[in-house]
Design goal:
It is globular, with a radius of gyration of 21 Å. Strands 1-3-2-4-6-5-10-11-9-7-8 form an eleven-stranded mixed sheet, with helices on both faces. With 488 residues, it is of the alpha/beta class. The chain has 17 helices and eleven strands. The chain has a single domain, classed as Amidase signature (AS) domain (Amidase signature (AS) enzymes). The protein binds glutamine. Glutamine is lined by residues 130-133, 156, 176-180, 208, 315, 427.
Length: 488
């Protein structure tokens, strides 16, 4: 009974809560029980708050019983990646640097979830400061893939994806700088949406690379993603990059927007390194859309080969600047035995940051240093514009672009941990949408012969989430990959 609840969709549970068929306390207790039973294996959570979650749940039930207006997520347990601030809860970014930090304020998305009635449940593990593709870079624990505990859940939002896939939460939030929502969604058989840059406020998100970071939801279905996006999207004067745009009724759009659509298949995405079973899943999706009357066209994104290099210049440059604030003086780890202030900076940062974060800071400092700025950073910015123009040109012909989310299904824990370059390559198909600021979604697209989930990615036009979700929903609602549960 209890796992049936925690593997339900948000949409179904919201209806059951409204119909008094279940209470939020029962649902929240089910998520807690499930977590207690299996999280020792999955390790999705950095911290949990069961008593507090039950208090929130009881408050939701009381609101409902009193006939007060209830929000779209009223009573639903939602887990946040441990980089999104929740007042009076820890925010560690899975780093020793913030191991003892408790946030004094709510992120804007957190306030919006609270206003919608959500029960904030637990803090999900990630690669330290969201740098990685496997969640192995966490300073605290390695999250496992619920479909195969020998394998990674993807990253950096691996805890958010795994918690949902394992039935420990009903929806979760992650952040995506180069693929960190979509790639773990693909590895864990869930839906992951990275909205257009500027659609969702980043106020209260521990920054990695500010020109790329976006917050977005993980859910079981595209319909649930539409509900979550409706709650978290919108202009925020506390994030100067947040965009003033009309927020559609994304859920209604799933019904009102009907195809047939024109879908582009970028020829550069089907070359070397693509696993044949992943390619076959994309072929099967192409056949599905064609059957629905969609027009499928080959498109070209000619600057794709530069995406990874451009990303690892821009993202590291911005990270080196953003992470300068962790200095051992204010709210961070502070070294115990420093001789003077400079020694304190050095020692605190040496002790507080893990190896991948240090690698990024060193790379970023290098590409920004005088003499190299023009050769690397400025040039990368120019190529970034070309990459964006490739997409915009394709959108002259097609409504959205269909690709694999990741070249392979989930890899084994440890397999790429000592080879950063091969780890970086697992984001080859997701990074373009971040560099171009476009919305991208990964949806469940089947399983490999060894039972590993495969994700399909759709990349949409700027601020056209309503269309993107409708296109994704047409596939998602006709397949039931998402209902295949992991054996835990
Ligand atoms: N895996 C990529 C990186 O390591 C992307 C991470 C992310 O999107 N936060 O930078």
């Amino acid at each position: 009974m209890s796992t049936d609840l925690t593997f339900s969709t948000l949409a179904a549970l919201a209806d059951q809560l409204t119909a008094s068929e279940v209470t939020s306390v029962e649902l929240t207790q089910a998520a807690i029980d499930r977590t207690m039973a299996i999280d020792a294996q999955v390790q999705a959570f950095n911290s949990i708050n069961p008593e507090d979650a039950l208090v929130q749940a009881a408050a939701s039930d009381a609101r409902r019983a009193a006939g007060e207006a209830c929000g779209p997520l009223d009573g639903i347990p939602v887990t946040l990646k441990d980089v999104i601030a929740v007042r009076n809860q820890p925010l560690t970014a899975s780093s020793k640097m913030l191991a003892n930090f408790v946030s004094p304020y709510d992120a804007t998305v957190t306030s919006k979830l609270k206003d919608a009635g959500a029960v904030l449940w637990g803090r999900a593990n990630l690669d330290e400061f969201a740098m990685g593709s496997s969640t192995e870079n966490s300073a605290f624990k390695t999250t496992r893939n619920p479909y195969d505990l020998e394998r990674v859940p993807g990253g950096s939002s691996g805890g958010s994806a795994a918690a949902l896939a394992a039935g420990e939460a009903i929806a979760t939030l992650g952040s995506d700088t180069g693929g960190s929502i979509r790639q773990p969604a693909a590895f864990c058989n869930v839906v992951g949406l990275k909205p257009t840059y500027g659609l969702v406020s980043r106020y209260g998100l521990a920054a990695f690379a500010s020109s790329l970071d976006q917050i977005g939801p993980f859910t079981r279905t595209v319909e649930d993603a539409a509900i979550m996006l409706g709650v978290i999207a919108g202009h925020d004067r506390r994030d100067s990059t947040s965009f003033k745009t009309e927020i559609s009724d994304y859920r209604a759009a799933l019904q009102t927007k009907q195809g047939p659509w024109k879908l582009g298949i970028p020829k550069e995405y089907f070359g070397k390194g693509l696993d044949p079973e992943v390619a076959a899943a994309v072929e099967q999706a192409i056949a599905f859309y064609r059957n629905q009357g969609c027009e499928i066209r080959e498109v070209s994104l000619p600057h794709t080969e530069y995406c990874l290099s451009v990303y690892y210049i821009i993202a590291t440059a911005e990270a080196s600047s953003n992470l300068a604030r962790y200095d051992g003086i204010r709210y961070t780890h502070r070294a115990a035995d420093a001789k003077d202030i400079v020694d304190l900076y050095f020692k605190s940062r040496a002790e507080g940051f893990g190896p991948e974060v240090k690698r990024r800071i060193i790379l970023g400092t290098y590409v920004l240093s005088s003499g190299y700025y023009d050769a690397y950073y400025l040039r990368a910015q120019k190529v970034r514009t070309l990459i964006r123009q490739d997409f915009l040109k394709a959108y002259g012909e097609v409504d959205a672009i269909l690709t694999p989310t990741s070249p392979t299904p989930a890899f084994r824990a440890g397999e790429k941990a000592t080879n950063p370059l091969s780890m970086y390559l697992s984001d080859i198909y997701t990074i373009g949408a971040n560099l171009a600021g476009l919305p991208g979604i990964s949806i469940p697209g089947g399983f490999s012969t060894s039972g590993l989930p495969i994700g399909l990615q759709l990349i949409g036009q700027p601020y056209a989430e309503a269309d993107l979700l409708a296109i994704a929903h047409s596939y998602d609602s006709a397949h039931d990959w998402a209902s295949r549960r992991p054996q835990l």
